[in-house]
Amino acid sequence: MSLNNIEAFHWQAPLFSELHTQFTTVHTWQEKYRLLMQLGRQLPDYPIILKIELYAIKGCESRTWLAHQEIDGRHLFLADSEARIMKGLLVILLSLCHNKKSAELKTIDFKKNLEEFGLLGYLSVSRGNGLMSLISQIKQVI
């Protein structure tokens, strides 16, 4: 399946630094959870034709998909999940890697960056494992 004509890949991910500021200014899990729910709405519509096994992330508590393409040396990602909390986590994760070059992606410590948000300790083991599976999938394409 060709991904070349899928316009949704050209979405603008929020800046990681701005998300980091938002999450470090709130202190309770309830506030962070509310931010995650709001963030999830920023994901572009994920094309139904990409909700197939090829793009499914193994190990996630809820069905989650990640599609990738490289255009002009930049890595573009689309993602979706059936779980609202995961959608918010996807926005944070993609803010680190969407529209970046391989050299940039190779320097990112995804787990360390996510830990700075103070979220990982609140996630279920299976949700945390799903997040690590997503990171692993991203690393495979670079």
Question: How does this structure look, described?
Answer:
The protein has a three-stranded antiparallel sheet. Helices cover about 45% and strands about 15% of the residues. It starts with 15 loop residues before the first helix and ends with a helix. It has a single domain, classed as Sufe protein. Chain: A, CATH 3.90.1010.10. Helix 2 packs across helix 3 and helix 3 packs parallel to helix 6. It has about 140 residues and is of the alpha+beta class. The longest helix is centred in the last third of the chain and has 16 residues. The mean pLDDT is about 90. The relative contact order is 0.19.
How would you name the oligomeric state of the polypeptide chains in this document? single chain
- Count of runs of 4 or more consecutive helical residues: 6
Rg from alpha-carbon coordinates: 14 Å
Helix/strand/pairing class, anyone?
alpha+beta
CATH architecture: Alpha-Beta Complex
**Helical residue percent?**
40-55%
CATH class: Alpha Beta
SSE topology string: HHEEHEHHH
Our count of domains comes out at: 1
Strand order in the sheet with the most strands? 1-2-3
Q: Low-confidence parts lasting 5 or more residues at pLDDT below 50?
A: none
